[in-house]
Amino acid sequence: MKKAKLLTKKKPEKKLLLSLKKKAGRANSGRITVRHRGGGVKRLYRLIDFGQEKLGIVGKVIALEYDPNRTAYIALIEYKDGDRRYILAAKDLKVGDEIMCQETADIKIGNRIKLVNIPVGTQVYNVELEPGKGGKIIRSAGTSAKILAQELPYTHLELASKEVRKIPQQCFVSIGQVSHPEKRFEVIGKAGRRRLKGWRPTVRGTAMNPCDHPHGGGEGRSPIGLKHPKTPSGKPAKGVKTRKNKWTEKLIIKKRRK
User: Fold this and answer.
1) What is the pLDDT of residues 123-176, one digit of tens each?
2) What class is the 3-182 domain?
3) Going along 37-163, which residue ranges are E strands?
């Protein structure tokens, strides 16, 4: 379905907008830690309720909107107490649908339920890693995880990367798949559109001078001259393990596919 037909023609909810200063790839030190960032069009941040803390209160989808800060669409929910919040929109969620966040709600698209009460084989997204901390993973467009097994006190979850890991059963997850799965087929089309998204040009290391990159230097189209490729700062690149969250290793049953 085309974006114009799917999304609601309205301005964003003013109370749920926040102005953030652009960092252009710089850390608190002021140095560039992520290259090729900068510029781009101005955009306001939408406050997303990843935890959906309003337990037991029915909410109605009153709008589906585009969010410039993420790949997925967002849904504006109005609860029965009058409160309005943005959540990540699920695929096939429509304006007028009702959702609920509760420990034992119906297995329906958009509902948010504890893992322990969801049957094996169900697709879920916006998954908590620690109870009460809000959804942390499975949040980008078109992604979902599948429940493989229930084994107290954990649920075995197959992630989008095919990694299988244990998640505490008291964590909340949303039922369904994240909206906008066709994002993966999007063609940017021209350099100017990429600049509007905040991406700056990328130069190959082999095209640089030796003082600028370990791959630089040489006459003409020279090879990198190294046994293994390196980053601009001289660290090994491509195929080197960079995982540092070793405390979660015990929760991983099967590593992701490379």
Assistant:
1) 999 999 999 899 999 999 999 999 999 998 999 999 999 999 999 999 999 999
2) mainly beta
3) 45-46, 59-65, 74-79, 84-88, 98-99, 112-114, 123-125, 127-128, 135-137, 145-151, 154-158
